[in-house]
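Lab meeting notes turned into a lecture example. A postdoc, R.K., suggested we walk through two folding results consecutively so the class can see how the record format repeats. The first protein's sequence and structure tokens come next.
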Amino acid sequence: MRTSFPHLRRDFAASLVVFLVALPLCVGVAVASGVPAELGLVTGIVGGIVTGMMRGSSLQVSGPAAGLTVLVLEAVRQFGLPVLGVLVLATGLLQLLMGALKLGRWFRAISLSVVEGMLAGIGLVLIAGQLYSVADVKAPASGLEKIAGLPGALAQATGNTGALASLALGAGTVAVLVLWKRLPQRVRAVPGPLAAVGLATAATAAFALPVATVEVKGLLGAIQPPSLTSFGALADVGVLATIVAFTLIASAESLFSAAAVDRLHDGPRTRYDKELMAQGAGNTVCGVLGALPMTAVIVRSSANVQAGAKTKASRVMHGVWLLLFAALLPATLALIPIPALAGVLLHAGWKLIPFRGIASLWRGHRGEALILVVTAVSIVTVNMFEGVLIGLALSIVKTAWEASHIKLEVIDKGAGPIQAYLSGNATFLRLPKILDSLESLPPDRPVELDLTGLHHLDHACRTALENWAERLPHVSTSLDRPGTAPADPEPVRATTP
């Protein structure tokens, strides 16, 4: 008998796997972001049910992401938790607008080096911040202060019994996550993050470890829709910059994740504009509820594909399981030790740093590798928004420099004029090289400069070439239009007696 849901069994099984992967990550991202743990679950629920039901990418799963943790933490510290809903709501509306204007595909034009540098910078700051949580020490605000203060924080922790227990628990969580892939396949049926947090929770209870655990307010108590007065924060330039950063990072990460997920399955391809609108709808709802911003998350998405999901029903059902857990078992969260969640995010932050990618880029494309590293370092030393802008600016400059490729070929037969042929794109970026090459030609010989091999000649180069020719006596010049090649092109003739 033919059923209306031929893939329901596979989607149901996949939804349970994704739920088990998402649960500790939702809680961990929320705690690391400085907001109630329940708000991470709210974002996961919205990402599953609201975004999951919309068109775009059929198998991609959305929720709170480690990639936005640092930015959310800074925003909550600077503007307060009540303004978070305004930030996320504005982000969602911007994404909806961009999707409606069909700008989703343009995010694919962002340099991959900038995106990987952004994630690497986030990973570095995330690792530094979570090391303080593992050591049960308050973290400084800026990325540089976090890194600089790590030796002192770890030294301080060694003299405290509770801090040592916290360190041991966090280190054990990371060890479980690292070693989990090497265990037999039957054991690995349980997702690594869930197993690591579950073992840490059991160890905390069994040995009565003096470590901090998650504070629980209840799902309804944690939801804080933005008040009308909170919208007054939109007059703050810093708030507007944070909204732009949220939008740029969340959209880029989601659409790059969609491209990665498409390579994992043979099903329908992502429709980028609709996926951007789906993310916007989810963030709009999250903003109304005062929850965390969402992105598509590659960890959950790849787990969904690998578990055999065939349709979007799996991600919707995973949102339902998160909702049932938050509604029926909220007290369970209070048993989870914070060092275990910090260990999960330490592992996630480490995976955000593309060590192999940097080495590969350095061998083949050193300019791209430099952009990646500079973007990451800028995020650590300055802040998220300005770091991404620096990376984008470097990417544009590099592209402009490469687009202005110019070649000068000089033919000197010993008698008669020296023939010089310029080809490529003559722009102001390569003007010093062009003039240096021309001025190095023998001053006592006539020169014929042929420009018909140029595809582009900007105003600065044209003016400079005219001035160069005019400085030589008895010169007749004629600059042909670049890209045209008449049968007998008249070259620029620079003749000296």
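The second example is placed directly after the first for contrast:
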Amino acid sequence: MGDFVFNLKHVLVVSLAMNMCLIWKISYDEETVANKWSSWEQKLGLCFNGEKHKDHDTILATTSSAAAAPFVRENTAVINLDHGDPTMYENFWKQKGKETTVVTSSWQHISYFSDIKNICWFLERGLMSAITRLHKVVGNAVTEGRHIVVGTGSSQLYQAALYALSPHNASEPINVVSAAPFYSSYPLMTDYLKSGLHKWAGDAKEFNKQEPYIELVTSPNNPDGSTRQDVVKRDKGILIHDLAYYWPQYTPILSPADYDIMLFTVSKSTGHAGSRIGWALVKDREIARKMTTFIEINTIGVSKDSQIRAAKILEAISDSCDHANEKDAETFFDYSYKLMAERWKEIREAVSKTELFSLPDFQQETCSFSGRTFGQLPAFAWLKCEGDVDDCEGFLRKHKILTRGGKHFGASMKYVRVSMLSREKEFKLLTQRLPAIVS
């Protein structure tokens, strides 16, 4: 009995000690917890747009997410601006409520097929109509005489276009090029499956082979926002125009784009990246058929639910443009243009307060859609570290700003791509932190 009492006393003492430790741990200074966040982030890695940053361990949480934790102070918060997640559009769409809400019954959209008479047989007629109408309203692309191919984002459409344009009986894969700085996912998507049909051949400005090639023309360009034309200009070349950012919140619309293959996406036009809907305007019927075949084999079509949601949103944008003269009416493009213009004003002011960084300048032009005269307002800032800083990505990472370095775009590591599409809190932290960086 005595032994039992003795042991019980020991258990009580140990229990009390453990509880005191727990209380002390909970009340531990939040500054210590914030400091430990920096070591935690180094142990976590993410892939963005399919790219693993082996020298750049990005974190799972951004400053606006629940995982960022309320106890992390603003001066220690990690600002993740590596990827172009268009969360800045959330507030606009929250205001729309039922106007853009789609309700689907369980018995609807069961079939694979949408329109068997159409080349793209899984394209919903409502989405086709909404796409055609919006391009006509904005005036940014010719749709007459084009076939519309819908895809799971423009990334799938890019791969479908490569499949359709590559010779299937050639002895060597066709070369695929784009002028640097090019979109960082192009090389990865081109070579990911190690296809015998096509291969990444690098910077279009350095391509000098007398061989067939496919050139990707991204305009406005990701990452630097510049207006692009094809570079190689040879007889054996085939062009794909990626026009994801050819919308009036990012660039003046000068004329309707009129190319053989044009790629668009709701990700950057409306901000609905999670819907995974893109579309291609294709002039040649056989190319459109081959692109459809690729998507048919790859995913047996595209989600009808996503298509119907996208159609509803595109129609709402066109409706708002039609009613733009009504009192207190603000179109989606008015809202997003003002937001982008304000953000670019703020980041330029932040950069002007330090000699460590610089940003590109853009020529002002008059937009045929809005009548405004302005320079480019790219979705990404192509930020350059001046002076002795040779690794801008690593330099900013030390200051808890995560970006994507120039090497991923075929450019100098003195440059980084910074997303301008984040939530307001993240962007504000960026413009506060940049001028405060000394070295």
